Amino acid sequence: MKMKKGLIFASILMLLMSSVAGCSNAKNESAPSEVTMEQDEDGRLIEGNVYLEGLPIVKDKYSFNIFMPGDNKPDEVEAYKKIEEATNVDVKWDMQSWAAAGEKKNLMFSSGDYADAIAGWALSESDVMKYGPKGVLIPLEDLIDKYTVNIKRMFEEVPEARKAVTTPDGHIYTIPLVQKQANTKSVLHINKQWLDTLGLSMPTTTDELYNVLKAFKNGDPNGNGKKDEIPLTFELNGPNNNQYGLFGFFGRIDSPNHLVMDDGKVVYTAAQPEWKEAVKWFNKLWEEGLLDLEVFTHDTAQWQAKGRQNPPIYGVTSDWDGVEALGEENFKQYEMLLPVTGPNVEQAEWPQPDPDVFKAQFAITSAAEQPAAILRWLDQLFPAITEDGLNETLYGKEGEGWEKTPEGKFKALPKPEGPTTYDKLPGFPNYWPFDLSEKTEGVYMGPDAITGENYKLYTLAEAYEPYLTKNPFPPIWLTPEQQMEISTIQTDIQKATDEKFARWVTGEDDIDAGWDSFQKDLEKMGLSRLLEIYQEAVDTYYSL
């Protein structure tokens, strides 16, 4: 998963807002080591070249290189120069363009000429499962326990993070991004000005929403004398603005691979009656012109361009914050719409955000001569320098993109004119541990920043919390063998499902007439085996 600058609001990689003191304890002193632990002349314990606490991290200057996707080199930023001076660690940044990073990474693994560390969105979970057991990526659990304060504390305070990065062989090969997500990654937005113009109330059921959509289509609510209104739209299979939550009106959400959890069991949505009812509802909207007739053909740019027309033509849409789909000016007409309830459904369901733990964010390879030094550098990177070092390394200099409030929080500022320090940063979130969750008031994230007010009102979407699925899919690991077995099965099944979805919604095929035969086709393609493999992975995750 690649995330560009500006996409994330108040986020966490780990809990790194601590002081640099106090790392040694009895466990550290008694931990087995191939190098003798001694007391240096400054009184600190040192093992080889690596101090167990305090700054600098190493006695003699140590250099290591990091392979990482990104556009700029952090060592061009003043904050990173301070980090090098304080830690006595010199980082050689091997920054690769997003377009080239995947190929360069594969060449690195095939040649055996590994970087000392790999960071950012470079590693896939498949890479970890392949190169961890082979010894290319080294196990980190013992190093974490012995040399870190903040990473270890993060695992203690966020135990699901340690659980998520522990692979089936019992090792931890990566340090995760622990990102405190908003309650939901998208919400529904409805044109409140249109509702007021037409004298309509906010809908709460699918029947009421249907009537509102009909009024939007026929009532010329944008007042331009044309029937150009698009009552309901979304970006098909989009990252934050898709159709998956709409299925939850009927009691069960959908997902990109159509796999969801149901009381600990993996189920395939397109084999469930709730999915069928949702598709029939979509078909009804399509037949009456209430669903965007370009929903299966428009791309992201086209979808956004339509949403930003003046006057607005979208009635209801799903989006991260509303601004992406509608633009800042049009967005002023919209308010949040809570999930509506379908027939025989006690309460609608809405997708939870992606897991708070992104597992493969930082790894150390077997090429590293001093892995303990690398991990200590990572552990104390930001608080080791300055309380504000975190913001400086993520958002630039104070006063450019952020400022500190009297209460000690960090507050977003409008982007200043001209180039800024932020423009030189490699792109967040590419790196390592920090915690902004309790210290921000709408963090500035570049030219497409969302204000603190909109962040609280729309991105957090606290009103959606009662609707969030109670059965989120856990962050499982699939072994190389499992991945190989499901690769063809899953591709064929998902392709067939997506094709049927389009044909049934548009009325090219009749879902009632073709439902039973489609279920038989899914079984022939290996659905039962697919579910069995995923269930094995889920059970393994919960057993750790």
TrEMBL record:
Matching Gene3D superfamilies: Periplasmic binding protein-like II
Domain of life of the organism encoding this protein: Bacteria
Protein name: Extracellular solute-binding protein
Keywords (A to Z) from UniProt: Signal
SUPFAM superfamilies with a match to the protein in the record: Periplasmic binding protein-like II
Keyword GTP-binding: no
Residue stretches of biased makeup (Basic and acidic residues): 397-410
